[in-house]
Batch of 2 targets.
Target 1
Amino acid sequence: MVVVGGGLAGLSAALDLAEAGVPTTLVERRPFVGGKAYSFHDSVNGVELDNGQHIYLRCCTAYIALLDRLRLRGSMRLQEQLRLPVVDPRTQQMSAIEASAGVPAPLHLLMSILRYRHLSWRDKAMLGRAMWPMLRMGDRGRRRLDDVSFGDWLRARGQSDAVIDRFWDLIVLPTCNDRSDAVSAQQAILVFQLGLLRDPHGADIGVAKQGLSVVAEAALGAFQAAGGETLLGSAARALDHDGERVTGVVLGNGERRAAAGVVAALPPHRVAELLPEEWRGRFSALDQFELAPIVNVHVEWDRAVLREPFVAVLDPSVQYVFNRSLITEQDGPTQWVTCSLSGAHAEASMAQGAVAEAAIAGMRRAFPAAAEAEVLRWRVVKEMEATFRPRPGLGRFRLGTTTSVRNLLLAGAWTDTEWPATMESAVRSGQAAARGWLERT
Ligand SMILES: Cc1cc2nc3c(=O)[nH]c(=O)nc-3n(C[C@H](O)[C@H](O)[C@H](O)COP(=O)(O)OP(=O)(O)OC[C@H]3O[C@@H](n4cnc5c(N)ncnc54)[C@H](O)[C@@H]3O)c2cc1C
């Protein structure tokens, strides 16, 4: 087998295939694995940074099982129970969305919602009108909502623009990488059902204490230990085929690699580039995907400006702030923090200095300690193709793992896992591709 793409989807597929005894080669374009989730040495600032802060939730069961399999739980920091502090820069008041210990879902959120200072009492009273139907909705009912925008669905249940902005989008934006108005209701509702409404621990938040590449590198190590072959820095240029089936891949240097089957663990438009012209019509769904950016602003302050590991900020130029010094257990007089900006269409086309300036100004408004502090260094990382956009109507174009070409399988966070573009979706898709192959042979 050849697995093309060394992101979490490709690594998961390759690992399962190799461990099942299938001779497998992993082909990755870049000289390192990890795809959208990696860390790198920032030579200008002399520190290791993630390409973008990644979180996972306790409901990400496939990702957590992978961490366990790679013995990486100790490299992670997972909350015992959900606590998400939220600050309003206009008042600098902090209020948290948090679970009450020992209380079943969804009542575990009730106390914190009653205490939540960033919504009016009227808005709080209206929240139930949207939460209750989500709680009762089954999988089929949810899937029927793919064509509807979550914003429209919420407004039809009495949610005001303020409550969408100050509550619903707080969760939708980082998980779906877009605002409620641009996201399919089926996609957003799945997030709330899995994370907040069905299990009191579903949304406990986890982060890596080390650079993010630790996961991909451990997966690569396990793959190689199982006998897998790796071609790093080697792009696939095309699929080789005999008209009916795939016969291998053509690499960038023209070398042909024969294979019994291929897993294309790539973003949708990259899969399309590899397909022979005569198969393009069968895979026209790939053209339906649009990609969306995430921008991260890494800032070193000359002193501690943040006490919590992370805080959501009701300011679009800041969004979520992560205390990297605390998370990575690197105490010192200075503090590294990372602002993660999802759905960052505006920031993606701004100059890096302007993005950093806006985020730093936003942090100064939100955190009194930052208002007094100096910025020592910063680095902006723009990921222009961070995720697919889960727009209304996209669900029907998310392709399954097995395809009409018998020995061509697909994997990637964008395939039909139902999850938004996450590490969980990537791992699930890769494992499904390996299963699909093993069941066919
Ligand atoms: C900044 C940022 C923040 C994010 N935050 C979160 C988060 O908090 N939580 C979360 O769960 N998810 C988050 N995500 C999303 C998550 O990282 C992705 O959904 C997931 O990693 C995608 O994995 P994948 O394997 O499907 O695809 P990719 O990671 O895109 O992997 C595809 C791989 O294929 C390689 N490739 C492409 N073309 C070729 C070719 N022709 N030949 C060989 N190789 C090729 C690429 O180099 C890449 O390594 C974030 C993403 C970004 C960018």
Target 2
Amino acid sequence: MKLQLPPYPSKKHWLFGNIFYLRKDTIKNLSEFCDEKAPVFSLSSPINKIAVVCSPEYIKHIVQDNSINYRKSLAYDILSRLLGNGLLTSVGEEWKQNRKLIQPAFHKKKLDEFVKLMQRSTEESIQKLKLENKNVSFDIAPFFNALALDIISKSMFGAQVEKDAIRISEIIIQLNKLAIDRLNNPITTMLFRNNKDIVLVKELDTYIYKIMNERRASGDKKDDLLQMLLDARDEETGEGMSDVQIRDEIMTIFIAGHETTACALSWAVYAIGKNKEVLTKLREEINSFTGEINFDTIFSLQYFKMVVEETLRMYPPAWSMGRRTYAIDTFGNYQVRPDTNILIPIYYMHHHKDYWEKPEEFIPERFHPSTRNNINRFVYLPFGGGARMCIGNHFAMMEMILVLFLFIKNFDFEIPNEFEAELEPLITLHAKNGVQVKLKTI
Ligand code: HEM
């Protein structure tokens, strides 16, 4: 049988092709394309070869079974303007070596050590929020952003960025917007070289180099990721990592390690606030919790875990993932050419009617342990899959459960009736105008 290129969706712009429709209403238009042409289809674009793959079997093929044929896609080239060649963006031997080097920072024993730090940081932030005594509704997103930033800086790099947190968050949101703009408007970007992002990255670099230099100058030997990076030696040559390599790894963990988690926490509060019966069940779990907070007891908070998992389904912070083919690959009767960018639409998979009952409803019970194993790992993939799966998944789960637990223990909250959060798919999935809440201290 003659293999052919995957088909194109019917809706297309005469000059910019299908991708024109991904610049606005991205999630809606992409989902329509998937509904029309699943499980694999091409997207016409003036400058790139793009295919979208939206079946669990083919996603598994790409990220796991035939991952050797894939590197990261164009989106990650854009991300590397910020992250350099760190763990998220690097490929091949360099990635393998660094994954091996960094992995121990996420072992269970280390995670257990982070619990107290996470708890302290969350309780301090909650105390400050209480003192602000806000009687009106306000956007909770900056609170979770600053908290997640504090947690990642202290746990991985022993650093305090509290006084710079607002500026750092501002820079990251601007970079997020510039990156998605670059991706969605490749021609404008080429014609009008815009280096606004480089200026912002330089500013962010000053914080990163400060963290690195302060540790070196202090002569302290701490037991954290920063120290592991500073002390790492090549097994054959005995050489250490260059400052730029260390900077890239710090920047990657710094950004990947808080932005996604912060988005998820805001979405969780939104979803819980809109589903009062969920809040009631969470309170019951809080009331029946006794004993000390540690790694094991955090994960024994079954309903909290289900709520977090359902939040990651409804509002996956990494709403899509990308790869690029080295050589031709085949999917059924279709053939994808070398150097094709593959888009894996995580959000679509998480809302796919064939795999989820009432996909638009927030139902934590679908993650109940009795049926949890029936969920296909390549339909539900908030942390990706295969060897490139998120290195921080357990760290993130632990943080989200713990922060939510303490937040709900301390506050009663509601989302104003008239407020509806709007999806804003930047590199990560934001709520366009934040998440409005009204808090009452308990
Ligand atoms: C809710 C929180 C999080 C979500 C939804 C998330 C999602 C993801 C996804 C989907 C990937 C795979 C990307 C790909 O294959 O192209 C990934 C990779 C990665 N994540 Fe996360 N992440 C989260 C939290 C974290 C945290 C807390 C850290 C670090 C402390 C982290 C560090 C990384 C790194 C370094 C990679 C690249 C791993 C590699 O390629 O070896 N992430 N994440």
